Amino acid sequence: MEIIVISEPVGLEVVRQAAAESFVDMVKAVVDVGRGILALGGELHADAEAVLLADGSRQDDLWGINLYPEKPASEWIEYSSLINVRPRAGNRSLVIQDLVIQGKIRAVVERLISKR
User: Fold this and answer.
1) How many Å apart are CA 1 and CA 86, to the nearest integer?
2) Could you give the 3-state DSSP secondary structure of residue 103?
3) What is the pLDDT of residue 1?
4) Which residues contact 91 (CB under 8 A, 6 or more apart)?
5) Is 4 helix (H, G, I), strand (E, B) or coil?
6) CA distances (Å), origin 116, targets 6, 77, 78
7) pTM of the predicted protein model
């Protein structure tokens, strides 16, 4: 699946289509919390991460998530990815531990993707 960078709001259908082309009910994404954009798609989070890095993103601002378009808005973001393991940043897990970072990610996702 092609990786798309989303910097302007899109409908949920974009996420549904990306999920259908990749993991059926889920699609991987990488959020740049500094620039307020995200890259959607790819087999690995590292694929989308590379696209954003080439586009000028800073490594420290990139976090991997999984989006489940058919789940309710309160459950559709999963904050888990291998690229999130960052001991020097205090995140020693695949899951993003910092609730502030989770909030920033949710804000970017909600601004860019209409769940309605």
Assistant:
1) 27
2) helix
3) 73
4) 84, 85, 97, 98
5) strand
6) 17, 15, 19
7) 0.96
How confident is the model over 98-112, as pLDDT tens digits?
999 999 999 999 999
Is 83 in a helix, a strand, or coil? helix
Distance of alpha carbon 116 from alpha carbon 111, whole angstroms: 12
Q: What DSSP string runs through 27-66?
A: EEEEEETTTTEEEE--SSHHHHHHHHHHTT--GGGEEEEE
Question: What are the backbone angles phi and psi of residue 91, rounded to the nearest 5°?
Answer: -110, 100
Q: What is the average pLDDT value for the chain, to the nearest integer?
A: 96
pLDDT confidence of residue 86: 94
| Cα angle, residue 63 at apex, residues 8 and 48 outer, rounded to 5° | 65
Scan for tokens 């989303």, then name that residue. Answer: 6
